[in-house]
Specification:
Two copies of one chain form a homodimer. With 165 residues, chain A is α/β, with parallel strands linked by helices. The first copy, chain A, has five helices and five strands; from the N terminus they run E-E-E-H-E-H-E-H-H-H.
């Protein structure tokens, strides 16, 4: 088996977490991550542009099987929902434009269920299980946005590969 | 003067209005429009894909000076804000990816102020003024989504051209 790659994305206008896992037919492994930031002082269009460029740069590094973006159902209010929604839409458009074989969405509940086996797991539990799945030990050096993105990638890999790993 | 083109977009997941106006250095004219729809029974990703493809098709038809998307501040609730936000973000990402010289945003208030001279104008007034600006007579055959998109294009043209027309 050769290695195939899955990308998970935790979207946000301030910072977007990108995590990539590899799958060689037998088990999952850590492949890479990026924390894509935008300058809070820039215009909204320029901030979206920064997030898009950062995601595109990561897309170019791997021969991806597919990518998934964490779904968001709730938000503090309509204004923050609009900002987060636009960021997520811009990221989805970037993945669609890259003509990946598949672009998926998973809710936080689905991701936690896949990674921890429990849909209401705390973020810290998710981080520990991500490390166990990928056989890495970064502890608190693994930012939550990256941990969440890697969890999304693991969920995608489980979803797309027919056999459990 | 040769003709230069401005695109205005009224974003929506069900239907997105696209309007294009031409400017020859002396006055504005109607150049084209499209009502881009998505299939309500398709997945959200496929629906975004339809909107993106439709906007890309229009981008390919004109040598655009710039494009603008109507801003949205309010929404019925956070859920609809997330859907509208994602659609708007996907459209902005498509314009940014097309490497247009400028991608802009205008609020409904700015657009109405530019087209009608009154920020709280009714949609019907906007439609009539759009027809007057562009010297067209379509009456009720001009859908509101297109009228709003053309109004956004007129606002953009006024904003980007130094002289009043």
């Amino acid at each position: 088996h050769h290695m195939i790659y899955f990308m998970g994305i935790d979207p946000g206008l301030n910072k977007t977490g990108v995590g990539i896992v590899g799958w060689n037919g037998g088990k999952l492994s850590y492949a890479g991550h990026a924390l894509v930031k935008s300058n809070a002082k820039a215009t909204f269009i320029d901030r979206l542009g920064s997030i898009i460029s950062g995601v595109q740069a990561e897309l170019g590094k791997y021969e991806l099987h597919s990518a998934a973006v964490e779904d968001v159902f709730y938000s503090v209010n309509a204004k923050s929902a609009l900002l987060l929604g636009q960021t997520r839409g811009a990221i989805l458009a970037t993945l669609i434009a890259a003509k990946l074989p598949a672009v998926c969405e998973f809710t936080a509940l689905q991701i936690k269920q896949a990674v921890v086996g429990y849909g209401k797991a705390e973020k810290e539990q998710v981080r520990k299980m991500v490390e166990l799945h990928l056989n890495i030990e970064m502890g608190t050096k693994l930012p939550m946005d990256i941990s969440d993105a890697l969890a999304c990638a693991i969920c995608l890999a489980q979803n797309q590969t027919s056999r459990a790993y």
